[in-house]
Amino acid sequence: MKNVTDSFVFLGHWPFAASIGINTDILATNLINLIVEIGVLVIIGKGVLNDLLDNRKQRILSTLRNSEELRKAAIEQLEKARVRLQKAELEANEYRMNGYSDIERDKQNLIKTAYEDLERFENNKNEILYFEQEKAINQVRQRVLQQALQRALGTLNSSLNIELHYRTIRTNIGILGAIEWQI
């Protein structure tokens, strides 16, 4: 190290340098110190700086590649989601249309069932009316028959005498006896 400093100190002994007024004292001269330091840094730090810049470049390139892969994956997922959305919309429309047709079919079935029930109720009503009418007609017939029988008995009782009464009984007994022998 002494040799290097001696060579710079030796510059101070140059007559040309002394006449210009350059300060050749290495410790006092800032410009020379800066140039030397920069030169040393450039020579020694060149490799380190290149390594740092290369590492930074590799990280940036890796980040770019990763972001490109992520972008492609995101685009693929977006396309898949769009396809699923379209499929879901088609299914929703299909369900909606099927739902409308199901609702319409159910509505028609309910209307048909209501008409069938109404027709059945109408038939039941008609049957009940017919039955009640027949019942009323039978009641009227029975009353008319009872009244007719009572009048006939009243007429018979008033017009029959005992002799006619005995003769009618004997005739009826004779008819019943003839029927009894035939059986």
Automatic annotation (TrEMBL):
Pfam families (alphabetical): ATP-synt_B
Coiled-coil positions: 64-98
Subcellular location: Membrane; Plastid, Chloroplast thylakoid membrane
Keywords attached to this entry: ATP synthesis, CF(0), Chloroplast, Coiled coil, Hydrogen ion transport, Ion transport, Membrane, Plastid, Thylakoid, Transmembrane, Transmembrane helix, Transport
CDD domains on file: ATP-synt_Fo_b
Gene Ontology molecular-function annotations: proton-transporting ATP synthase activity, rotational mechanism
Membrane topology term: Single-pass membrane protein
GO CC annotations, alphabetized: chloroplast thylakoid membrane; proton-transporting ATP synthase complex
InterPro entries per UniProt: ATP_synth_b/b'su_bac/chlpt
Miscellaneous information on this protein: In plastids the F-type ATPase is also known as CF(1)CF(0).
Protein family (similarity comment): Belongs to the ATPase B chain family.
Protein function: F(1)F(0) ATP synthase produces ATP from ADP in the presence of a proton or sodium gradient. F-type ATPases consist of two structural domains, F(1) containing the extramembraneous catalytic core and F(0) containing the membrane proton channel, linked together by a central stalk and a peripheral stalk. During catalysis, ATP synthesis in the catalytic domain of F(1) is coupled via a rotary mechanism of the central stalk subunits to proton translocation. Component of the F(0) channel, it forms part of the peripheral stalk, linking F(1) to F(0).
Subunit (UniProt): F-type ATPases have 2 components, F(1) - the catalytic core - and F(0) - the membrane proton channel. F(1) has five subunits: alpha(3), beta(3), gamma(1), delta(1), epsilon(1). F(0) has four main subunits: a(1), b(1), b'(1) and c(10-14). The alpha and beta chains form an alternating ring which encloses part of the gamma chain. F(1) is attached to F(0) by a central stalk formed by the gamma and epsilon chains, while a peripheral stalk is formed by the delta, b and b' chains.
Protein name: ATP synthase subunit b, chloroplastic
Organism expressing this protein natively: Cyperus fuscus
Gene: atpF
